[in-house]
Design brief:
- The chain has 477 residues and is an alpha+beta fold.
- The chain is built from 14 helices and twelve strands.
- 46% of the residues lie in helices and 17% in strands.
- The strands form four sheets. The protein has a five-stranded antiparallel sheet with strand order 4-5-6-7-8, with helices on one face.
- 27% of the residues are buried.
């Protein structure tokens, strides 16, 4: 965990910016412990000491590790349905300048990572800066490396900061950890680059004309009280994950006892007792157990076995938890990996169960689409060294495009495309038609190039035929 402490004086930083930085660092430090809890549940690193009720699990088993992927499933399954596919211009026009920025920043793949961070923590932050190589550099920062302050009046970020680079902490008390070495502070008028060494912080101002911070959040499930959103791994979800880990631990221990049922032997001599104690495993796996009367008492040893434990109650509890988890997250029960009698058996039933998740993905795409549009417009302004107001209506009219979150089969989309093409003849010649019948952009480019080449060869053939006919006519005349 990174914990920042701002010095009383950052050289080169004005008093107003110094106050902003201190506020942002306090916000950052306040949320670090909560973000660590969310990250722990996403990674599935939940020790038994965090979930033990102190009844069935003895303290000696606190180190037992139980894996649980429910946290990752909660985030990844929804993120996988948010498939950013670039920007579309006014009336479907191409956005070549913006496409160049997207490719230079690998924005399509970076968005996938940012979307996971957004769902894990509730938000993630995109920052922009001028860059000669790609015209505008776009980076994404999770709340574990960035923080921002919201301005309710303006309905956007008031100021923010992001940790750009870190170095290994050489202090003895924090050996093996990393500390920030470069921080960017984003304000309405400038980006302040703050370099940190062991003792001093120095800031350099880089002014811009945007009139707002070059920082935009991607937010999931925001409310009026929480403008930076809420995590998919909120408290009720984490409790269900902890209950699942505890149930699996109990089932694991119960299975051990079922595998090695407890037996008893009464009326043995001291010598026989010592022999049995020293050879427990051999007595367990042996098919025949021999014993003689106790020479002192003449008592005949009596052999018995206690009833085996039943893990079925644990299985039933897992099914209950899986059903509750499915209802709370929108995932299907099948996604939890728990076999349930209520699991759907037909494709239609499975599709019906996934409708809640599709609706969530549509909500996610709508919110992120607005943020991506704002990011793209600021990127165009930076690339052209101008303000947002000075951009053309075509540049400001772009919209983000996402693939269908319902993820229909190729057969279904192909059938729909052919039906549309039968009603609209020109539709069959569009890229959208080719996409709907299953071709990706690489295939579409190859198809159109080869079609163009075929048309060119056909045109050349027609010209040659006309020339040969004209030559024949002249010869005959």
């Amino acid at each position: 965990m990174i914990n920042l402490t701002v010095p009383n004086r950052v050289y080169g930083l004005g008093p107003e910016e110094q106050g902003m930085l201190e506020d942002l660092v306090n916000i950052f430090n306040y949320h670090q412990s909560k973000n660590e809890i969310k990250a722990k549940h996403y990674e599935g690193n939940i020790p038994l000491r965090d979930v033990n009720l102190g009844i069935a699990l003895p303290d000696e088993l606190k180190k037992l590790e139980i894996g649980c992927a429910w946290g990752a499933k909660t985030v990844d399954v929804l993120a996988a349905r948010s498939m950013f596919d670039g920007f579309v211009g006014v009336e479907g026009a191409e956005t070549s300048e913006l496409d160049e920025i997207i490719q230079g920043n690998r924005l399509l793949s970076e968005y996938t990572k940012a979307c996971r961070d957004e769902l894990e923590f509730g938000c993630t932050f995109a920052t922009l800066s001028a860059d000669k190589a790609v015209k505008c550099r776009i980076r994404f920062h999770p709340p574990s490396t960035a923080a921002a302050r919201w301005n309710g009046q303006k309905g956007r970020i008031d100021c923010g900061f992001a940790i750009i680079d870190t170095v290994k902490d050489e202090s003895e008390s924090r050996s093996g950890l990393w500390r920030p070495s470069l921080i960017n502070l984003y304000t309405d008028t400038a980006v302040w680059v703050i370099k940190i060494d062991s003792y001093t912080w120095t800031a350099t101002e880089h002014k811009h004309m945007m009139g707002r911070p070059l920082m935009e959040p991607l937010v999931w499930n925001a409310t009026s009280n929480k403008p930076f959103g809420r995590s998919r791994l909120k408290e009720p979800i984490r409790r269900l994950i902890q209950s699942y880990v505890r149930t699996i631990a109990n089932a694991t221990i119960g299975l051990e006892f079922s595998t090695a049922p407890q037996k008893y032997l009464l009326g043995v001599s001291n010598k026989q007792y010592e022999t049995l104690i020293n050879q427990k495993f051999r007595q367990y796996v042996g098919s025949v157990l021999f014993s003689t009367r106790d020479p002192n008492t003449g008592e005949t040893p009596e052999f018995g076995q206690l009833p085996q434990g039943n893990i079925e109650p644990h299985v039933q509890m897992m099914r209950i938890l899986a059903t509750q988890f499915s209802a709370a997250t929108g995932l299907t029960v099948t996604d939890t990996g728990v076999v349930n009698d209520a699991n759907p058996t037909s494709s239609d039933a499975i599709l019906a169960q996934s409708q809640t998740l599709v609706a969530m993905a549509e909500e996610l795409n709508a919110g992120n689409g607005e943020s991506l549009r704002t990011i793209a417009i600021m990127a165009l302004a930076i690339a052209n060294n101008t303000t947002i107001e000075a951009l053309s209506d075509e540049q400001k009219g772009i919209v983000a495009h996402f693939k269908n979150p319902a993820m229909p089969s190729i057969a279904a989309t192909s059938d729909a495309a052919i039906k549309i093409a039968s009603a609209r003849e020109d539709f069959a010649s569009t890229d959208v038609f080719l996409e709907m019948i299953g071709f990706d952009q690489a295939d579409i480019r190859r198809i159109k190039a080869q079609e163009q080449r075929a048309r060119g060869l056909s045109l050349i053939g027609e010209i040659e035929l006309e020339e040969s006919e004209e030559l024949a006519d002249e010869t005959n005349s």
